[in-house]
Write a structure and sequence with these properties.
Layout (H helix, E strand, L loop, with lengths): L2 H15 L9 H15 L6 H10 L14 H12 L4 H13 L21 H12 L3 H14 L17 H6 L4 H7 L11 H25 L4
The structure holds adenosine-5'-diphosphate and nickel (II) ion.
Nickel (II) ion binds next to helix 2.
Length: 224
């Protein structure tokens, strides 16, 4: 099977798997991440095949939609890619990307254990930047409120303080208003970008969120 054929088959598999997904984690999210990844990869020395498969499969079974089980995604991806008879080194690399891409995997555990960076590669960095770009800017705002609605969270509550320095457990358990998520994650992403082009793309999207929040608070406080 050629790489092109393997990519076509993966696209079909991902579309089918994410048919019922929440609006911010559906096929269109994957497609945007793939486009972002391809854009960033232009200026990075990476294996494009690994980047493409990593972007396509990175949310194949996000733990937050699988009772917190972080092994479902890697397992699903391994089974699928093995059936396509793809090189084991490629499969292993793609699985490492899925395991290490998420924001919460960079957070410390409550017991102080730092399960953070277990693995890194240029390919992971590109896919991670691509995913982070889709969490910020206009799309990021839409996704945050969609997720908040999906979880029945309030938009904003001035009484609920922002929690910085959250442990991984606290982050997963958080039921805070959606506006808090901007301060707890989305506004932090621009300084976590791995690549030069990712950082550049993040800048404009970050500013857009800052402007949005300013307007949000103006309207909340009865100003024009
Ligand atoms: P990762 O999958 O990288 O660990 P998250 O699980 O934090 O990251 O979230 C992925 C996306 O889901 C976020 O960018 C955001 O759009 C949405 N999301 C996750 N948690 C929240 C939340 N508490 N409030 C609003 N949106 C959220
Ligand atoms: Ni994602």
């Amino acid at each position: 099977m050629t790489q092109e054929q393997a990519i076509e088959k993966t696209i079909a598999f991902v579309k089918e798997s994410l048919k019922e997904a929440e609006g911010g984690h559906d096929w269109f999210h994957i497609h945007r991440v793939l486009m972002n990844a391809q854009l960033i990869a232009k200026t990075e020395d990476v294996d494009r095949f690994v980047v493409t498969l990593g972007a396509l499969l990175h949310d194949i079974a996000d733990a937050k939609f699988h009772d917190g089980d972080e092994t479902v995604g890697p397992k699903k991806a391994t089974e699928f890619l093995s059936a396509l008879a793809i090189d084991k080194t490629v499969i292993d690399h793609v699985v490492k990307i899925i395991e290490n891409i998420s924001f919460k995997s960079s957070l410390k555990m409550a017991n102080g254990e730092d399960k953070g960076i277990k693995f890194t590669s240029k390919e992971l960095q590109v896919v991670q930047d691509a995913d982070r770009l889709d969490a910020i800017g206009a799309i990021g705002i839409a996704r945050a409120f969609n997720y908040g609605g999906f979880k029945n969270r309030v938009l904003y509550d001035p009484e609920v303080a922002v929690q910085t320095e959250m442990t991984r457990e606290a982050y997963k358990k958080s039921e805070a208003p959606t506006i808090n998520h901007f301060h707890e994650k989305l506004l932090l992403l621009k300084d976590k970008m791995n690549t030069v082009s990712g950082r550049l793309l993040a800048k404009k999207r970050h500013q857009y969120m800052m402007d949005y929040l300013e307007q949000f608070h103006n309207e909340w406080n009865g100003k024009a």
